[in-house]
Amino acid sequence: xxxxxxxxVAAALxxxxxxxxxxxxxxxxxxxxxxxxxxxxxxxxxxxxxxxGGNDSAYTRQSLTDYLDLYTAFKLKVREAQSRGLxxxxxxxxxxxxxxxxxxxxxLTEKNVTDQLVREAYARLKQEVNASHILISVxxxxxxxxxxxxxxxxxxxxxxxxxxxxxxKLAQEFSQDPSAAENRGNLGYFTALQMVYPFEDAxxxxxxxxxxxxxxxxxxxxxxxxxxxxPAQGEVQVAHIMVRATPGMPKADSLAAKHRIxxxxxxxxxxxxxxxxxxxxxxxxxxxxxxxxxPWFGTGRMIPAFEEAAFNLQKAGDIAKPVYTPYGWHIIxxxxxxxxxxxxxxxxxxxxxxxxxxxxxxxxxAFLKRIKAENNFTENTEAKASALSKADQALLxxxxxxxxxxxALKQTLFTIQGKSYTVGDFYAYAKxxxxxxxxxxxxxxxxxxxxxxxxxxxxxxxxxxxxxxxPDYRMLVKEYHDGILLFQMMDEKVWSKAIEDSTGLQAxxxxxxxxxxxxxxxxxxxxxxxxxELLQKAQQQLPLGRYPVKSAKLSAVLFASNTAVLNPxxxxxxxxxxxxxxxxxxxxxxxxxxxxxxxxxxxxxxxAARAQxxxxxxxxxxxxxxxxKTNNLGKTRQAGSDNTETGxxxxxxxxxxxxxxxxxxxxxxxxAGNPLGVQISQKKFQKGxxxxxxxVPWEKGTYTAQQNDRxxxxxxxxxxxxxxxxxxxxxxxxxxxxxxxxxxxxxxxLREKYPVTVKQEEIEKLIRQ
Length: 769
What we know:
By secondary structure, the chain is an alpha+beta fold. The chain is 47% helix and 20% strand. Helix 4 packs across helix 20 and helix 5 (111-124) crosses helix 13 (343-356). The protein starts with 5 loop residues before the first helix and ends with a helix.
């Protein structure tokens, strides 16, 4: 078994669930002991049932005995880790604390509330609401008097709207949403999970044509006028071609943009390639090279004009006339439409969104209310009133402090399950968490700090006692605790050791050669072709042994006139080329020297010198000499436009041709028109590895075959008798076997150190139960 994540390993060992953290009571039945450490029957039963629940044959003697063997082996490894103190290290505690934080989250929410919110969100996603709003801003932690003033102002505006004044005009004049000046408060259509929850809740509960009561969100108070409700439109995916034309641009530029989009639209109507038009003309740089394709979107995700045009398209391929938005002009093409997925398909994503949504505040409030009652949260009202009264103006400046010698600091402010939290504890929190405020009273600021401290204390107490309160959470924590220890020990004793102990691995391989043998093999080349013509081409070119690499685009290295000296740019090019050749031993490079006809009379010599310079540089960089072949092309004649300084400079160069001895390069060459035209395999095949090879005689020779409309050429160069494998040929399997060997050796040592004793009578009880 190779190295892997410790939690997955623990599960793979069928030991995912483990014991409670508390010590076994001496009176509790024990099913086994590891040295002096007992394993209770109840502990083993819990683990066994978690991993074997629903299995009809679970409670057979053989099944129980086999699982107990696995479980005691697991416990031996964990016991050894604990004896070495691995569970006391800072790194271990930090890792376990991180897992505990994640595991605790489901226990720190109100599940019933979450379930209700998920169902509600899905139901609302089936409907879309068109509404306008007026916002009167007020901070979430505003003083009561400021909150009341904002509420009264909102109520006054509602009275005016109900009396018949135009809602849009009121929004334009009084709303503190900056967009209201332009949109008169109209939000268009939206659906669930697009607005903060209190706003969404009010919008869905307000009938069409009516105005809601004032709604408080973190932004302030809202009035919501619902214009219309409709069934959800689902989602669309479209592509677009865009020409920028922003509001306020010069009229001439705006007119030019309109002419441009109209001209493109005419070409679209003539069925010219949409992708080519998007790549050439669209000014949306993020999508132009992808055919203008945009991500899936639903209601409320796009500018209303764009969204409306997209949803009005009925079938894939339909194209809308140019549409104007604040970003410019768009030609929109429908790619696909889809409805709302099923509840089962959406449930998990909805839960994830709700955990981050403003709905979480409702869940948190319900959870805090419950744990206050469960944990007997009790306030000392006199101490609380006295503590809050010490707030002064310094608190609004973020500079409040207290007298550390005050005897009142020892007074109990509140208790949680009898645990006392003092005034001093609260004051230390308040001093650390205070911040400057622009409004409100010191008393209100202190009240907010007290509420935050009480909630924080409740959550901390609940977290600290989760293992006592929830046995399943305690078991999960123990699972992760032991899983981390198991991983550390297995890595040290088995996984890493098997890989790093080359001497031990070699000795293990030498002592077990009979396990690692080849059967009869054939050294063969198998060509599969879509037709006889391609097969014939492959057969003709195969003997060449080297094949052009079509994918390689190697730039020439340029030289100054009458020289063969590399410049820095040329050296950079060649260093990268050397790396390519070193990484691919099957590659062969032809180096071609060139000289300009107007250079020295010994142009051929200059060309040869340039080629030699490049070849020597590559070899000096570590490229084997046999991978580099030097050619001298001599003088290069000039003609036409090449009879210029630029043209002559291009001729003072070294160019390259790249070849490969790998038959895959031949396949690539032949597959230019059809990627599946030819497939070539060249290696040692075992019996049963290739179906077509198994249909011909396993003797040296050339054979043809046809199967599944494919034509085959099979060249068997040699038939190899059964032989022992070399270590490099089966290293992965040997390492896996060596790891298993090391683990068994280690377990034997652990059983000597911590003798395992099994109580058979307890197994019999489990069978009878």
